[in-house]
Amino acid sequence: MNQVEALQAALAGEHAALYGVGAAGGKLSGARFRDATDTFEVHRDNRDRLSALLVAAGETPVAAQPAYDLPQVVSNTATATALILLIERRIAAVYGDLVEAAEQPAVRTFAIETLLGYATSQLSWGGAPVAFPGATP
Predict the structure, then answer these.
(1) How confident is the model at residue 136 (pLDDT cuts 50, 70, 90)?
(2) Which of 12, 128, 35 is nearest to 81 (CA)?
(3) Which helix (H) or strand (E) is 76 found in, with range?
(4) Max Cα distance, the chain (Å)
(5) What does the H/E/C string look like for 8-56?
(6) N or C end of the chain: smaller count of CB under 10 Å?
(7) Is the dihedral of CA 90, 46, 13, 35 positive or negative?
(8) Rounded Cα distance, 99 and 84, in Å
């Protein structure tokens, strides 16, 4: 996978993450709803940054799909929290691929910082620390 392909994959992942976090946020309230809103904003900011990187490279950013199949039913606080944790795990793996494929230092730095941010986010959503966040088994 080259840098452009990895940027497009990360952008596609951010589109899906926004959809999933938005769906999960609707089942949350109070502090957890605020956490989901913050998580949504991070994904939105990263989506915009990825789009800008692709445009700067002369590429057309991949568009979001109209809807996404959620990997699990979201019916209450527990399932919403579990979905967001799953999203953060999956998007970390996508950024792990971007770290590997990055050809420019600025892209690699962005990918590493974002990967670390999603690893930290996993902890706040009930995940356990892992030695190599974003690594796929």
Answers:
(1) low
(2) 35
(3) none
(4) 43
(5) HHHHHHHHHHHHHHHHHHCCCCHHHHHHHHHHHHHHHHHHHHHHHHHHH
(6) C
(7) positive
(8) 22
Segment 49-61 mean pLDDT = 97
Q: 129, exposed or middle or buried, with CB in 10 Å at 0-12, 13-18, 19+?
A: exposed
Evaluate whether 90 touches 68 at the Cβ level (below 8 Å): no
Nearest alpha carbon to residue 61 among 9, 1, 115, 111: 9
SS3 10: helix
Residue 66 in this model has a pLDDT that exceeds 60: yes
Check: pTM over 0.85? Answer yes or no: yes
Q: Which residue has the tokens 């949350």?
A: 28
Q: What is the pLDDT of residues 120-134, one digit of tens each?
A: 999 999 998 877 776
Q: What is residue 129's three-state secondary structure?
A: coil
Q: What is the pLDDT of residues 79-94, one digit of tens each?
A: 999 999 999 999 999 9
Q: Which two tokens stand for residue 102?
A: 């990055």
Rounded to an integer, what distance in angstroms lies between the CA atom of residue 92 and that of residue 113?
11
User: Which amino acid does the sequence have at 11?
Assistant: L
